[in-house]
Amino acid sequence: EKYGIPIFARIDYGGPGRTQLYVFSQELSKEEAREFLIRADEFFSKKGIIFIYPLHGGDMGRPGLVKKLSYGRFNWYDALAPEFETYETIRDLAKSKRHLED
Fold this sequence. Notes:
Radius of gyration: 14 Å
Order of helices and strands: EHHEEEH
Number of strands: 4
Shape: globular
Strand order of the largest sheet: 1-2
Distance between the termini: 22 Å
């Protein structure tokens, strides 16, 4: 359904407890996270919603809760970090969108 304005969806972050970004970054394996990105992108695309890919940034949770830190040091999500390695999936999804517009 078309709304006439762009609608965006993102993985939310911030706040205490198990935020969406906490679950995505801390509870999913690398492969599960990649699969989630693909499925979420497909789901939102079918509904005409633009999925904002989690490239960099976003507080993953409270310091006592977060075990997987970007580059072993930072409490901010980074798709290139060896702990997550989702950048290539995001890049491929973004490239596939470019071909749809041609």
